[in-house]
Amino acid sequence: MANMINCTACRNTASSLEPAHIYVAGDYSFNNDVLAEYLSTHTRFVCCQSIQSSNLKTLRLSGPGFDRSLLIFLDCASRGIRKVCRRTRFKRNFLQNHNCKVVCFNVEPQSDCDKKALKRGLDGILYNDQSISMFSKAIDAVLNDEFWYPRKILEQHLFNCKQGPAEPPRGEILLTRRQQEILNLMKKGLSNTDISDRLCISPHTVKTHIHRIFKKIEVNNRYEAVQWLDR
Fold first, then answer.
1. 3 — alpha (psi -120 to 50), left (phi > 0) or beta?
2. Helix axes 222-229, 203-217, angle to 10 degrees
3. What sign does the dihedral 29-35-40-46 (CA atoms) show?
4. pLDDT of amino acid 8
5. What confidence score (pLDDT) does residue 125 get?
6. Is 194 helix (H, G, I), strand (E, B) or coil?
7. Residue 46 in contact with residue 10, Cβ under 8 Å?
8. CA-CA 20 to 30 A from 208: which of 79, 117, 179, 183?
9. Domains of the chain in sequence order
10. How far is CA 102 from CA 23, 81, 145, 164, 219, in A?
11. Are 143 and 20 in contact (CB under 8 A)?
12. If you compute the radius of gyration of the chain from its CA atoms, what whole number of angstroms results?
């Protein structure tokens, strides 16, 4: 499905997740319509509109009356997407924005794009040989503040990041005991649901703690939080 799906906007109607605007951005209008039709028919997400990669800069990420998160799927097969991603403004507006999640799709399995995406702080990837049904699973995961990467990629990355004891450096704002506990479980690769079960607290409480951790240590995602922990 290398070039089958590109630019479409969707809205998550699941009651278990916060409201969100979901966009799939690329250069192929026909494929946008195909994806919109599929998601409308086969998933619980209602598709609303299409967006070209050149129009990503027009998306409103915050402001009065804006109370929803954003999830943007980027088509790696689109030249326009590759061009947009090289811009500093894209990193500042999307990758460093707490209200925005970014996932790449149409990723070549044999390339190193998955490792680069994780290193840059993207929330997940979808390979070009995966089923279209994986989109709904990826949406559930990233809107729940989880990464959507193969386990081997995450394990290798965490192994490379491991440099010493997981303790906050001196001079930094210390986390509470519970926040340290959650951050260390995140480093082990546990999802929000796994952390909830381990600590006997609700998934919503886990998500709240994670948001406070990000704000306190001034990071934007789980990858940066683990890096902060290993400094």
1. alpha
2. 60
3. negative
4. 33
5. 92
6. helix
7. yes
8. 117
9. 8-149 (3.40.50.2300), 155-229 (1.10.10.10)
10. 10, 12, 11, 30, 15
11. yes
12. 18
DSSP 39-99: HHHHSSEEEEE--BGGGGGG---SSTT---EEEEEEETT-HHHHHHHTSHHHIIIIIT-TT
Q: Residue 149 gets which letter from DSSP? A: S
CB 72 within 8 A of CB 56: yes
pLDDT, averaged per 10 consecutive residues of the chain (231 residues), comes to 37 45 79 72 62 75 59 84 71 71 88 83 89 86 86 79 50 73 89 90 90 87 83 67
Tokens (6 digits) for 94? 């999307």
Q: Can you read off the two tokens belonging to residue 90?
A: 């894209």
Q: What is the pTM of this model?
A: 0.62
